[in-house]
Amino acid sequence: MTTEKLQTPISFGLIGFGAWGKHHADAIAKTDGAKLVAICARSEASRAAARETYPDATIYEDYRELLKNPAVQIVDCVLPSYLHHEVSSATLRAGKHLLLEKPMGVSLAECDDLIAIARAENRILAIGHELRLSSMWGQVKTLIEDGYLGEPKYALVELSRNPYRQGADGWRYDISRVGNWVLEEPIHFFDLARWYLEQSGDPISVYAAANSRQPDHPELQDNFSAIMHFEKGAYAVVSQTLSAFEHHQTVKVTGTKGALWASWSGAMDRTRHPTYSLRGFNGENVESFPIDKPTGELFELEDQIAMLVNVLSSGTSLSCTAEDGRWSVLMCLAAQKSIDDQRIVRFDELTS
Ligand SMILES: NC(=O)c1ccc[n+]([C@@H]2O[C@H](COP(=O)([O-])OP(=O)(O)OC[C@H]3O[C@@H](n4cnc5c(N)ncnc54)[C@H](OP(=O)(O)O)[C@@H]3O)[C@@H](O)[C@H]2O)c1
Does the reported pTM lie above 0.70? Predict the structure, then answer.
């Protein structure tokens, strides 16, 4: 898709000023070539906080009013997941470009609809899978592409952490509003696994298991694991526990020739002081790879805004397209179906 190239600074309007939305605001404000011109927040308390921190931005209570602001060129949507489709479709129809937080939708129909609207309106639709921009998780991809492993055959993407935040009004613990918990954090790991094993074709099926510490809430899955098979024989394991402590993520990818092992640890997910390392085995030697800049979701969030400034001003490519976002939702919905039905689920069951 080609759109007209915009002059910098690119004017962002932010919808959602909650726990993660505040970090988006900070990232936009810090990024060269980006300007935060408008913020929409629901409660008076959130609006007051937005007004105080960003006195130059126009603050709105109703997102529809923000969408009428001609200065806003791209909307950054950081709302509870059940609101993504309503607000994103209105945003694209209002002629704005869009950065939509993951999950792209809580159903495939929502994703398909957004892709169709973005095409019809010729607007950029980017999905917030920011881990792809990481100096470490991204370097794993680069090494795979450069042939370091030979042909990739296996990927493990694993996280152990403390429980999820509640979200405003507790939406994250309400399945009718969050969709399911695979769409919360494992969605990032499905995205990485599919990205890393791209040479093995499309994912074809998944088998998943999960359980909960809360007997009254089996749907709130503290432990989740899935095995996903790809067309040309590779497979990925995606695994997460929310019953642990701190935040520790590991990626292991092995191929016909070598192996890569990346790990990231922090006292919490949003630390600016994590520890991390990337090591590899090239078939002969074990080596450590330098990481050229800090990695962690707060850093990647800034990289994501910078990436969008480049896309809009210079016509460069998105790091994660709407089609990638749709794939991520599909993998999560199929994994949840596998848990519910206790069987292997093929992705084409959900698409045909
Ligand atoms: N990519 C990532 O790594 C990542 C990380 C975290 C979250 N996320 C995603 O980001 C999204 C937001 O998560 P969060 O943790 O920031 O949730 P949150 O803390 O609950 O924040 C959501 C915000 O949306 C506001 N809101 C709700 N309805 C609204 C409406 N109709 N109009 C305007 N604002 C409204 C709430 O306003 P009030 O505060 O005024 O009630 C709240 O501030 C979710 O989709 C989540 O999956 C992504």
Answer: yes
Which of 14, 67, 101 has the most ligand 1 atoms within 8 A of CB, as the residue to mutate? Answer: 101
Confidence of residue 1 (pLDDT cuts 50, 70, 90): low
Beta-carbon contacts of 162 under 8 Å, excluding residues fewer than 6 positions away, are 242, 244, 245, 246, 247, 268
Tally of domains in the chain: 2
Instruction: Kindly give the distance from the C-alpha atom of residue 21 to the centroid of ligand 1, in angstroms, as a whole number.
Output: 6
Instruction: Tell me the CA–centroid distance for residue 54 and ligand 1, in Å.
Output: 18
Where residue 34 sits, what CATH number does that domain have?
3.40.50.720
Region 223-252 average pLDDT: 98
Judgement on whether residues 114 and 145 belong to the same structural domain of the protein:
no
pLDDT for residue 2: 60
- Would you say residue 270 lies in a domain? yes
